[in-house]
Every structure is written in C-alpha cells, then in structure tokens.
C-alpha cells in the first residue's frame, strides 16, 4: 500500500515506522524538521497515572507496556523506567495521592507506599519525614526527540521510505491527494494526519471538524518547562512533590515543571525572571546539595484534542474515505504504541476495540465539546 504520513513528531514518526515495518511504502511529510513541534518541548513522563475514563487508562497502559517491552529493547538510550516517586506534604495533595494510589492498585497498576527512608535510597531529593510517599515502579521518563530522530534515520535506509520537508496545504480525503506548499502533489491509498497542534487547521482543509483546546493563556494548552544544568545530580527518574516536578535530562541536567505557575505561560512572551527564580528556589529546597544553574525556561504547547482524549482512526465512516487522524495528549506515552496499533488497523482493516471511544467521528456528532480542565495539580500532565 502507498501511504502518506503528515507530521514528523513522535506520533507521525511512530505511525510511519510501523507502516514501513509492515511492508508499506511510506512518504513522511513535515513542515519544518523532524520533531519540530511539541515533541521537542515535553516533560515526557512515561506513565498511565491519572487517566480517566478507564478506556483512556487502558490506552496509556498499552503505551507504557510498549515503551517497556519494545522501545526500551530497540532504543534503550531513549527511555529509563526506574520508577517514579511522588511525595505529599500539603493536606490537599495527600488526599489526592491516596485516592490515586488506591485507584491504580484497583486497576492492577504497580503502585505502593514507601517510607521517607526508603525514598532516600531511591532518590537524592530531600523527602520530609512527615511526607506521604508513593512509588510507581513501572514509570519513568523518555527522550522522544531522540527516538523520532533514530527512527527516521533507520527508515531512511529503506528504499520504500521518503521524507519531504514541505508543509501540506491541501488534502482531498476521497482520493488520498495531498498538496504541498511547493506545488508538489502526492497521492496515497491512505493518508495519516499527525500534525499535533495544527490538526484543526489541516483537518479543515479536508472538510473535517476537529477541535483542539483553545490556544489561550491561562488555559490547558501552555505550560512552562525549566531546563537546568545540574552536574551529577544522581536522580534516576521523575519525582513529583507538592510544588515541583523534576526528571533527569541526561546525567547532568534536569527538566522541571511547576504546574501551579502555568497560568501565565504565554508562547508570545519570554518568561518573566520571577518564574525562573521561583523554579530555582523550589529546586534548591528539594536538592540542596546539588549545584544547579538554570539554562532556559520554555513554554510548551500541549497537543490536546478538545475533549482531552485521544483521536485515532478514519476521519469519516464513508467507504471512499482515505484520511486517518492521530492526535493525542500524552503523545509521548502513547505515540509508539499508537503508531503500531494504527498501522495494524490500516493493514488488516480490523478495528481495534481499544479505540472504540477515540474515533475522530465523535466530533462530527458532538453538539458541544466539554471543556477540558487545565492541568494545575500534582500528578496532572
Ligand atoms: C509542558 C508539556 C508537558 C508534557 N508532558 C508530557 C508527559 O509527561 N508525557 C507525555 O506523554 N506527553 C507529555 N506532553 C505531551 C506530548 O509532548 C505531546 O502529546 C507529543 O509530543 C505530541 O506529539 P505529536 O507528534 O502529536 O505532535 P508534534 O510533536 O507537535 O508534531 C507535529 C508535527 O507536525 C508538523 N506539522 C504541522 N503542520 C503541518 C503541515 N501543514 N504539514 C506538514 N507537517 C506539519 C509540525 O511541524 C510537527 O513537527 C507534554 C507536553 C507539554 C507541552
């Protein structure tokens, strides 16, 4: 089959990779460069932690297993699954952490209480003696930009693969035609749209309505990520605390998130110096013995479909439709598995029951998309 995948973030690259491995011809079309979008500015915590409803937890659980058993075997340099430690001191956080741990245990997800002394064996972060501490041993963090680059390099060795850098400007879904800004016209048996935050605009070119959360300051879309130099920090995996999330970024760096600060994150502005200071103050309280230097605070743009849930499958139920859509929040957790599952559906024409709640067609019939709450609390993403 001749396939065209539009968008070379973690989702598009994963779809392209899995289609190629199934013997299809793949043209990957990207507007800028591989991993130019959100994939390069992500916290990339691998988990299925606070995913509602249960059908969405099931997808993320598949994503986590895929990283554990497939990606970590093929590209071990792109993922570390040494566990995630979360500790709560604030009353509100203690309550939600208890609720989350109990729910995850009821779903047979690895989650247990540990003492602050046990936490000290697992992480250099200072965990207060009165903290409630949980360990999620299956979780970890990834380097999605690196995975996308490695998989594209691998695909380039195949005569059935080509990468075109040229934005898509037109799509005809019944004929599988894709027009590029340069004037080039492509035609495929199947076209998969994986354009992240451009989904609404690009899908509209094919006559498909697909809302994403509003691009508004103070909403769910934008969030800060602080990149810090921290030589020999000794952190093995993500740590979530009342007011700061931190994860390793190599052996000498960290990525920080403070969700309660995100209300001011604005991609049009340079983050205020007070934001940078706040990140460093919070970090020093947790890692007082490590020397740290802030490199950059970036504003990331989350890829969130209007109702917060994954979108995967054919754009319409019309028999002549050739357009498929793949767009999701938690795209790092989900991308590699989603690529595999969609490539299987495309190849076999067998619907995957796990996708039942996640088809693009739900937006055509929905009168109004329910508002998606901004992630501002520990354990959110
Ligand atoms: C602050 C923050 C924290 C996050 N934390 C996590 C986390 O802990 N765990 C997790 O799993 N996820 C997390 N995410 C989300 C995750 O990073 C994204 O879901 C994922 O990177 C989306 O990948 P994508 O391939 O769909 O989109 P993108 O990476 O944005 O890729 C889309 C690509 O499409 C291209 N494109 C756009 N328009 C066109 C066009 N017209 N023609 C051709 N190409 C086009 C773009 O250039 C881009 O390269 C976080 C995101 C943010 C911002």
Automatic annotation (TrEMBL):
<protein>
    <submittedName>
        <fullName>FAD-dependent oxidoreductase</fullName>
    </submittedName>
</protein>
<dbReference type="GO" id="GO:0016491">
    <property type="term" value="F:oxidoreductase activity"/>
</dbReference>
<dbReference type="InterPro" id="IPR036188">
    <property type="entry name" value="FAD/NAD-bd_sf"/>
</dbReference>
<keyword id="KW-0560">Oxidoreductase</keyword>
<dbReference type="GO" id="GO:0005737">
    <property type="term" value="C:cytoplasm"/>
</dbReference>
<dbReference type="Pfam" id="PF01266">
    <property type="entry name" value="DAO"/>
</dbReference>
<feature type="domain" description="FAD dependent oxidoreductase">
    <location>
        <begin position="3"/>
        <end position="344"/>
    </location>
</feature>
<dbReference type="InterPro" id="IPR006076">
    <property type="entry name" value="FAD-dep_OxRdtase"/>
</dbReference>
